Amino acid sequence: MLTPVPESINFAEEEVKIHELWQRLDAFKTSLKQSAQRPRYVFFDGPPFATGLPHYGHILTSTIKDIIPRWAHMSGHHVERRFGWDTHGLPVEFEIDKALGITGPDDVHRMGIRAYNDECRKIVMRYASEWRQIITRMGRWIDFDNDYKTLYPTYMESVWWVFKQLVNKGLVYRGVKVMPYSSACNTPLSNFESGQNYKEVVDPSVIVTFPLDDEPDVALVAWTTTPWTLPSNLCLCVHPDLDYVKVKDHKLDKVFVLMEARLVSLYKKPEEYTVLERFKGQTLRHRKYRPLFPYFEHLRTAGAFIVCCDTYVTADSGTGVVQCAPYFGEDDYRVALANGVIKRDGEVVCPLDANCRFVAPVTEYLGQYVKDADKEIIKRLKTMGRLVNSSTVKHSYPYCWRSETPLIYRAVPSWFVRVEQYSQQLLESNASTYWVPDFVKEKRFGNWLREARDWSVSRNRYWGTPIPLWVSADGEEVVCVGSIEELERLSGQKVTDLHRENVDDIKIPSQTGRGFLTRTTEVFDCWFESGSMPYAQSHYPFENRKLFEDNFPADFVAEGVDQTRGWFYTLVVLGTLLFGKPPFKNLICNGLVLAADGQKMSKSKKNYPDPMNVVDKYGADALRLYLINSPIVRAENLRFREEGVRDILKDVFLPWYNAYRFLVQNIEWFEKQNNGMKFTYDSALVNQCDNVMDKWISSFTQSLVRFVKKEMNAYRLYTVVPRLIKFVDNLTNWFVRMNRKRLKGEEGREDTNKALHTLYSVLMTMIEVMASFTPFLTEHMYQNLKRLNPGKDVAESVHYLLHSPVRDELIDETVERQVSRMQTVVEVGRVLRDRRTLPLKYPLPDVVVVSKDETILADVQTLERYIMNELNVRKVIVTTEKEKYGVQLKAEPDIKALGLRLRNESKAVIQAIRALTDADLQRYQNSPDGFQVAGHALEAGDIRVQYTFGGDMAAELSDQYEAESDGQILVLLNIKPDSGMQDEGVAREIINRIQKLRKKAQLVPSDEVVVHYGVDAVKSADLARVITQFNEFIANTLKAPLKPMPVTEGWHLVIADQQTIKDEAIDFEIVSRDQRLANAGAAIDTAVKTPDAKDSATKTAGAADKSGKGAGDTKLTNGLPVKSGGATKPAKTSSNKQSGDSGSGGMVSEPPFCKYLNIELCNKEGKCDRKATVLLENPVGDYITSGEELASNIRVAFGLNSKLLLFETRDKRNAIDLNSYNTGLNLYNDFNGRTVYAFEH
User: Fold this and answer.
1) Which fold has domain 979-1085?
2) b/e for 202-217, b at 16 or more Cβ within 10 A?
3) Res. 1117: pLDDT tops 70
4) Structure pTM?
5) What is the CATH number of domain 1156-1240?
6) Residues 560-599: pLDDT tens digits?
7) 22 is catalytic
8) Catalytic residue check, 690
9) CATH T-level assignment (fold) for domain 203-397
10) Among 367, 721, 942, 1207, whose CB has the most other CB atoms within 10 angstroms?
């Protein structure tokens, strides 16, 4: 038996109930047991750190990582999903260093590595419970109990195995390289880590002199932004092929040498210097100069302090003379090595400690941090007379991603993995993978692989997997250990854990008579550990060998775009070097989630809403759908707006839920009307449906299923939601609305049964398709609707189902085309009604559809009865003869805009625009881009195309018809109703008012009520006449008797109200014999009818809790919280006129009940000559206007066809995005009564 569906729903609360259901069913584990024998779909989960709480970026990737495995499971696969944790490395150590005040290695050694690592171990899972709670609340099914952690000995042992394979392949070496180094963390970073965090900084900019030995009065001048490197300067570098000059400086009376193209770096005017000589840079090769500082003077005999040549020197900045400190710059090192200034086994000139403070022999700045020493060095240069110029420069500089301190490029001994020589193999591996979006693979990631450098995998730290290399004292004997068993065998000691405190003291006897080998002190870069995840999570090759090898590479991985230089990179490098292939086949790369202002989300700035608060308000499903329906799943950035999540409820979930509720209510009504006959779903009956709308919605649904399956196979999540929104619109605003009578049983039991079957089939199909995207809402609906399925093996959860195949037999492209054209006619007709303010309740004589395409007209004729119903017209006329109705296109130029842009030529263009023929304007409408008039391409807004009527009957036709087109379809609406049509419109108005009153009383169709009315037969004779004449029509529509007052005994009042229709008062009372309905209605009616307006508004909100409306300062509209705006509105009582009353006439002295927006239409100069007002809601608190609807209403108000741009100010500041989901609610909340400015685009 179906559970009755309430009028409203709190999605977040229902999700909690669904989560409790999953726990009772042990749903995730049950689904895995059910799929155990299916083919495997392998998913690798990149491990996050648990030292911080999950943010929107984590929630986004978790959503993607949930949707794809769920879809794969429902597609017939077994998908193991294990959560992973990155527990080692700088993120953990940095937290401990801050907490304990540790500033360097000495502090750690005084404390002891064991004690230090114990502190690290305590915090690695600091927020694990919060992670589990949040990720689970988001609906993600993943195994937290059988997780993997990089600190597990089994994981670390597999990392050792990976490294040993690289050693055995000859891919590991120890070397000294200039690398980005974190002074705060006392460790080098890999090249991809250093690219993660660039900042705009202001650094010193100095130009200093280097006198030549053989010409002491001539000095090369070099520029640097790192004065702290000057004490370690060993050579200079110039470009061999560019022109250099020797100049006399008139002000300083000195002779300088610099690049001719860079004279601007020293001089503003040519008069400030005289060129003495001009020559190529190679002329300076190997000339010697006097160093700035004496600390390394002894290296002169070894080849230091000479001028070198290299083409890396550019003419873009500086002086064209580069000062080189070889151990503080990659190019400096390369050039110095190539020119014999330094040797690989020579003295390393890097006078810094682990914290980047100067050490001996740089005694003048002993103990100073390099950046702090800049000022003192500049002072010293000035005293020495070697400083030519000192200023500052703003530029982009890399910072440590963990400590937020500037990176220092310095020579560091490290263990490297050879990557550069395998660049081509890496590119081939990348080519064999599939990425969404593809451009990240080809551009960003591909370029990174092309420039791949050898990977420094060692870190001078403590909390990490130790590098398993045991080395002799002379460095000649090196043993790489690849397992715990091997270490025990070589050392003779028992090993249970592989962290430094447990293995550092283990010694291995030398096999070559060198005593004992000791372990090198470094640990692995944590990126090496996470890149080993495909192997280490399964303890490969020590366990699960066959299982791993049968399922490698993985089918799917996903992370953010920042991981192109992180996890994605390390995965591909290790997979290629170990196995010759990438470790994954398919990859989704998402962008970054930013705050609404485009800035990085910041806890200190509080510039984003708490994720769990958003989930508690709107539900996890809404947040999931909002995130994947954004550019972020195409690797673009998303400016997060809470209103966007709310719009998912308004635009998708509420209409979807209402269609589901409508189905359940009408099944209950069907069973009641047919003497308790139970509705049981029979899929075969759907095939037998011959109603065109049944066939259409079934076809559209199956086409959508086919589309979604195709897109999911291509991992394009972002294409699904727009089609879902279109489906929801078609389902609720077309199928359900156009088939209400059928679904309510007004066209016979058999037809109703078919219509209900169609709606049930469509909803269940979409529940199944969308289960991976919105797991909570689909489960909520499924749990109720599954009861109508007679099968014995009905799954307990929608997530146990397998995807049904596309029912091709239900797809009818002809019907879909016919309905699409019918929708076009109806939508254009509605625009025409709106333009003339003709409510749909009032019938009109006819609508004329004009097209040159006979197929279009045939399609329209096939469905003309639906057009008649939807537009409320008596007749549909189709014709190919536009001329018969005298319809012509007319172009009106924007004279001011054209005059400003074209000046003297504008007059000819304006005349040419006015001379455009009907055929010309039709071509313009079909393809406006690049359309030329009098040799000039028109821009948006240059002309306004209008429909006019010509010929002898122009005036009569213009008065009778309103015209508008869409593509190849022209629609003419006859706007002249007769008196009988006017009366029917009033009857429909009465029905509308009563239905709204029933809704306010929370009545459902199956509630038996009687409606009584009271009207003054003398003062309101016309209204009384219409009620009498159309009584049967009104009663049949309401499915309730309509009787005059008074109410007889035995009936209980449910709700009463007085309305005004056509300026005539009418009282309504809805009564029932059911006391329960009367009590519920009385509570609502009492809350509304309070004398104090402010108190009334508060009580009304509070009294409506069971309908999903909340109390306090926030009222709820269709389940959506909406801010109270501006002054309190008067409560609607019996004395208030409804703002929507047709024919109320006259000006209203008080502001409208509905929120509204004033629009001024401006030309390009911002001058406004036309004004209009549009409603932001109608009625009060309901049907809030969306951005697209607002744009349409503005176009109707001004009679425009072109696109619009909307701004808060006349000078085009603060644009309003009319295409955004959340625009309508933003305006509703913040712009009531304000004026905005529209410009044609």
Assistant:
1) hypothetical protein PF0899 fold (3.30.2320)
2) ebbbbbbbbbbeeeee
3) no
4) 0.74
5) 3.10.20.90
6) 888 888 899 999 999 999 999 999 999 999 888 888 888 8
7) no
8) no
9) Isoleucyl-tRNA Synthetase; domain 2 (3.90.740)
10) 942
